[in-house]
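Hey, resending since the last one bounced:
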Amino acid sequence: GVPDLALLAGLAEAEGPAMRMQQSVINGVSVINDAYNANPASMSAALQTLRDLPHAGGQKVAVLGDMLELGPESDRYHREAGRMAAGSELDLLVCIGPGGSLIAAGAVSAGFSGERVYCFGSAEVAAEEIEQVVRPGDLVLLKGSRGMRLERVAQGLAPKLRLAI
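The structure tokens again:
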């Protein structure tokens, strides 16, 4: 019984939960923070979303971290994520953590140029370097398990602001 216009107005103001496809612009860089959780299916969906999003101008960058708690098939799933990333029409791939190294290896084995892959041991290290990799106009996806703390990479885009993302 709710009028259509009231539904549209409510949906226009609705906000999703933090770190679940949360969009923001930080110093001219468009960021999609989907780092609340990660598994092979959600990694695939996030990469497909990044590939399909219209974006004029800058680079499309995926910042991918470990998918935790995957069990004995973890290495295989991370390499598969890299192969998915290679087919996602990315300009740059930033990988974080031990699983991130496997993602990078999977991407390179699928034909993604190693010159366009950056690997970091932690989100904190990546946060210190991210300004050297991305620039205003870029579209950046953050995707990894919550324990990887990938929101710190977004904070690296605006260190002077000390964002609480």
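Residues 160-165 have pLDDT under 50 and may be disordered.

Sorry for the duplicate.
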